[in-house]
Amino acid sequence: QVQLVESGGGLVQPGGSLTLSCAASGSVYSIYSMGWYRQTPGKQRELVARVRMGPTTDYADSVKGRFTISRDFTENTALLQMNSLKREDTAVYYCNADSVRTSRTDWYGSELWGNGTLVNVSE
């Protein structure tokens, strides 16, 4: 069984910083893509940032220059450093792992999601 364990999040004032972390636990051989998505009520979940093997890094336009994602391919962890936070960054943030191998020949059946952690940017 493979799970994603998230930590971080919370209440922060506009202009402040937070760091989210995510760790994959269980039988993990490799993960092609690992990153963060976010969702607000009534809206679709959207990509915030991800690191794919290569490595290639993708960011949403709205967070470029403010957020930095890093990934440890050996430890199967990902960090999202969020600076200059804005009220519109308020959302539930979900860690995601896509194309997970449990061995050299076996794949996990579906992409993985964490339980989500709330980031609330408010006075």
What would you say about this model in short?
With 123 residues, the protein is mainly beta. It is 0% helix and 54% strand.
Overall helicity: under 10%
Q: Report the portion of residues in β strands.
A: over 45%
- Provide mean pLDDT, rounded: 96
**If you compute it from the alpha carbons, what radius of gyration comes out, rounded to the nearest whole angstrom?**
14 Å
Weakly predicted, low-confidence segments:
none
- Element-by-element helix/strand order: EEEEEEEEEEE
State the shape. Answer: elongated
Termini Cα gap: 40 Å
Number of helices: 0
Strand segment count? 11
| Helix/sheet category | mainly beta
Strand count, sense and barrel status of the largest sheet are: 7 strands, mixed
Explain how this protein is built:
With 123 residues, the chain is mainly β. The chain is 0% helix and 54% strand. The strands form two sheets. Strands 2, 4, 5, 6, 9, 10 and 11 form a seven-stranded mixed beta sheet that branches. It has a four-stranded antiparallel beta sheet with strand order 1-3-8-7, with no helix packed on it. The protein starts with a strand and ends with a strand. 30% of the residues are buried. The mean pLDDT is 96.
